[in-house]
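Action item from last meeting closed. Structure (178 res):
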């Protein structure tokens, strides 16, 4: 397992961080996008996407459409998580992305998602986190299982504005109060 002291999550804090996230999607090849359920034709144009993100960034938490955390490995930005469909005090959908392929499958994603989930539970006072990866995308499915998310159902849907119709696994994680 990765040394947790090496990894950190914190909210996006600059336009540059939104650019890194947007470019991760816009510069990805079709095969990679398809493998995580994303339809390239649904990706917004770069400037419009960034403008909309920055408008949302300035809103108070209970009005946010989406909230982003950058993933830091020994201080270097290597990925992000976000939540959307946020119902403050209740629930939100979580997303997970390690930008650098060479860092995948080494246990990092699991630890970053663990930290991200704890952050969201706390800041948005959530009772549960939901996630709907494409059923055949093994990495996120396995990460969620390892972190104790419960598989509730498998069904066909369009799981987001940039997604195509697909079979997803719907997972939920309840907030454990100490
Ligand atoms: C999803 C993601 C964040 C997971 O991070 P990661 O660092 O690769 O995952 P981990 O190394 O913590 O692996 C967790 C488990 O998943 C398994 N796993 C990871 N990648 C896998 C793959 N491609 N195929 C099968 N299993 C995989 C690991 O073996 C591990 O299980 P184990 O402990 O039983 O062996 C990362 O793979 C990623 O960013 N992928 C591309 C983007 C993506 O698909 N995001 C999800 C969109 S819904």
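Sequence:
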């Amino acid at each position: 397992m990765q040394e947790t002291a090496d990894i950190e999550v914190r909210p996006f804090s600059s336009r540059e961080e939104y650019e890194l996230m947007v470019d991760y999607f816009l510069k990805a090849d079709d095969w990679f996008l398809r493998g995580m359920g994303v339809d390239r034709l649904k990706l917004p144009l770069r400037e419009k996407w960034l403008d909309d993100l920055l408008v949302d960034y300035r809103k108070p938490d209970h009005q946010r459409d989406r909230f982003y955390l950058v993933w830091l490995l020994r201080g270097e930005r290597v990925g992000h998580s976000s939540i959307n469909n946020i119902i403050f005090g209740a629930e939100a959908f979580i997303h997970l992305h390690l930008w650098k392929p060479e860092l995948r499958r080494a246990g990092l994603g699991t630890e970053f998602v663990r930290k991200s989930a704890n952050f969201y539970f706390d800041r948005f006072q959530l009772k549960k986190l939901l996630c709907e990866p494409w059923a055949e995308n093994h990495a996120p499915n396995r990460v969620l299982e390892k972190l104790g998310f419960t598989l509730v159902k498998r069904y066909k849907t369009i799981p987001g504005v940039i997604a195509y119709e697909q079979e997803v696994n719907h997972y939920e994680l309840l907030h454990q109060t100490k």
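Note appended to the action item: The domain at 4-130 is CATH 3.40.630.30 (Aminopeptidase).
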